Amino acid sequence: MKTNLLFGIHCHQPIDNFDNVILEIIEKSYKPFFLILKSFPKFKCSVHFSGWLFEYIKNNDKELFELIKEVSNQIEFFTGGYYEPILASIPSNSRVEQIKKLSNFIEENFNQKPRGLWLTERIWDDSIIDDIKKCDVDYVIVDDYHLIAAGFDKNNLNGYFLTEDSNSTVGLFPINKDLRYIIPFATIDDTIKKLNSFANEEGENAAIIFDDGEKFGVWPKTYEKVYEKRWLERFFQECIDDENINVTTFTEFYDKNKAINLAYLPTVSYHEMGEWSALPNISKEYHELISNNMEHEYLIRGGIWKNFFIKYNESNWIHKRSLQLSKVQNQSEEFKDSLHKTQCNDVLWHGVFGGIYLPNLRDNAYKYIINCENLLDKQGFEAIDINLNTYLEYKFYTKSLLTIIDTKQGGQIVELDLKDKCFNLLNTLTRYHENYHDKIQMVDLEEEESEEENEDSEIATIHNSMLTTSEDIKLYMDWYLKKSAVDHITDESLNIENFESCQFKEYADFANQPFDVLNVDEKSIKLIRNGGIYKDSKLNTIIEKSYEFNDNQIDMYVDVKTVDSSMLKYLLEWNFHFQDYNALNINGHDLDESLVIENSRLTIMDLSLNKTIEFQFDQCMEIYIYKVKSVSQSEEGVDYTTQGVCFGFASEFTGELSLKYSINII
Q1: d(Cα 105, Cα 108) in Å, to the nearest integer?
Q2: Which runs of consecutive H residues, i.e. helices, occur in 392-527?
Q3: What's this model's pTM, rounded to 2 decimal places?
Q4: Which of 99, 159, 379, 397 has the smallest number of CB atoms closer than 10 Å to its CB?
Q5: How far apart are CA 234 and CA 525, in angstroms?
Q6: Per residue in 487-515, pLDDT tens?
């Protein structure tokens, strides 16, 4: 009776993640892992590093890079997209270029040509098969759920399958979910017992585990268990000593064994991804259904990964900006490298990690999007349907700014780029409702676990962690896109509390509805919407607004006309994202949480970006200011994150209003 153990780790960090974060992960996870591996020369394993992270380690931690070289005879290196893209979400030529770039890096530095491919987030789609075959890939890592979702028996997945498309064939190795959940969280005895359960007389069964390297030292409580309590050392030793376990590599197994069967996979990922990507209108029902019918999970699939483009407007915008740029012909190497960096997956989704909720990840994506734009050095304007909603967006280029207006979303400004800083001032985030919000529990800050753990006790995975927080969080949800130049019509009941909670009275239909273009030229655009104010009945209301673009200044005009004769308030909303919220000064005030002032001028000094943003109105405005904060889950529990600062400029009117204002950025 033999089990073939195919053990692998996947290591990745988001592009341009904070140095202190990466260096801590190196010290707590990567370096101790490979030091221990070195002390067990008989233990073989597979390793995937994203190209960006490998490059970072080579340049910033030569000790670790040399250590990996030293143990490379124990390692099978896997290739993948260099900047860790979801392969199914990027153009064909980018797939091939990214995979070949990482394969070449591995061959140049470790003298090994990869045959296996790490599939980012195991997002499978048949469209990738031809491209990965162009890169000399023989087999791909998927999950057991891929085969279960296709109808295969989950008890007969202990090897590899073959799939094909257009005469291209590739092997599929399914990771075992049980092993994902117990390594390194269960006791050594239970882990070895589980590995032995895969054994058969012929010795052809494989126990397949290929999972995040960060599980070994960075995930909660794992450093103590894995290294201080020597779980990893004992695991390696037990696997080597157990005569029923054959520690081998994917290449060795693939060459010695036949495929279990031919298989055709649906567009799918691992089971949890289906839960996270379920669209909001079915999410609650899906979770209830799956929790009550786990024995039939193969019949109950959630969403697909690309649903994140539907769930989060900000994710779709980043993705479609990248897709649009990928159409550029005759790309320079610098342009191509920046483009490939925009394709990194981390910022585009949200599960148990922060993803789209992390402002620095969005900043990094926009940095490379804007760098691509700068390299193109366009002037004037262009009209294009960027986000594939059949409405045109208008891009206006000046020497200092790139401004994009979305005609469908209330004629809002949805992107405002500082070209010299490669920084998007409108990199804000709408506050969404998440299914897990109802499960968040408040705890005392000083509350500590009283239960002591022994040397080999089990610890919880992040998939089973409780969602707790000691912060006084506020859960609010926005019903419109949280960008800028948003038009609201409300009344005297408006105050900072209901503005922040998005519970103020909204009478009109301008904030999230389409505007028509009256005219547009190289430096200006004029929009109109024939809408209404809704009380007992619809009261016809028109808003015309225009933008004029001059270098670092935008001049704006708003005209409101309504048949409603009551006293109303026009509320103009702008949302800005900043690099450091502690480095702001607003009309001489430091911003704590909120602020209410009256003035015709608003000056925002940003000491971090070394920029000043100045609003000038032709009349005195009531100004409501608050920090926009989101509530999201992460591997640490609950994150309460500042996503931007919201500015509301209000003015009373009856029947008609004409407003002229400008924004100057220096």
Answers
A1: 5
A2: 496-500
A3: 0.95
A4: 379
A5: 68
A6: 999 999 999 999 999 999 999 999 999 99
Q: How far apart are CA 513 and CA 534, in angstroms?
A: 14
The amino acid at residue 83 is Y
Q: What is the DSSP string of 329-351?
A: SS--HHHHHHHHHHTBSGGG--S
**The tokens of 336 are what?**
């191509």
pLDDT at 451: 45
The secondary structure of the chain in percent helix, strand, coil, rounded to multiples of 5, reads 35, 30, 35
By annotation, the residues acting in catalysis are 121, 212
CB neighbour list of residue 20: distance below 8 Å, 6 or more residues apart: none
Q: Give the C-alpha distances (Å, rounded to integers) separating 634 from 175, 310, 348, 542.
A: 23, 21, 15, 44
Q: Which letter does DSSP use for residue 226 in this model? A: I
CA distance 382 to 525: 11
CA distance 179 to 217: 17
Show the CA angle centred on residue 655, arms to residues 649 and 657, nearest 5°. Answer: 40
Instruction: List, as one string, the DSSP characters of 164-196.
Output: EETTEEEEEEEEPHHHHHHTTTS-HHHHHHHHH
* Rounded CA separation 154/271 (Å): 13
Helix or strand run (H / E) with residue 572: strand 568-576
Distance CA 422, CA 367 (A): 5
User: Per-residue pLDDT for 289 more than 80?
Assistant: yes
Residue with tokens 């949800």: 477
Phi, psi of 134 (to 5 degrees): -60, -20
Q: Which domains does the chain have, with CATH numbers?
A: 3-267 (3.20.110.20), 270-303 (no CATH), 307-424 (no CATH), 486-665 (2.70.98.10)
What DSSP designation does 508 have? B
Mean pLDDT value across residues 143-165: 95
What pLDDT is attached to residue 373? Answer: 98
Torsion over CA: 111, 116, 118, 119 (sign) = positive
Length of the chain as a residue count: 666
Instruction: Give Dmax (Cα) for the chain.
Output: 88
- Give the integer Cα–Cα distance in Å for 647 and 605: 14
Contact by Cβ (8 Å): 364, 501:
no
Closest CA to 307 of 270, 273, 334, 256: 273
What's the pLDDT band for 472 if we cut at 50, 70, 90? confident
Joined tokens for residue 75: 């390692």
Q: Which two tokens stand for residue 132?
A: 């990965």
Token pair in block for residue 305: 């990964």
pLDDT greater than 70 at residue 460: no
Distance CA 368, CA 609 (A): 17
447 pLDDT tier (thresholds 50, 70, 90):
low
Amino acid identity for residue 594 in this structure: S
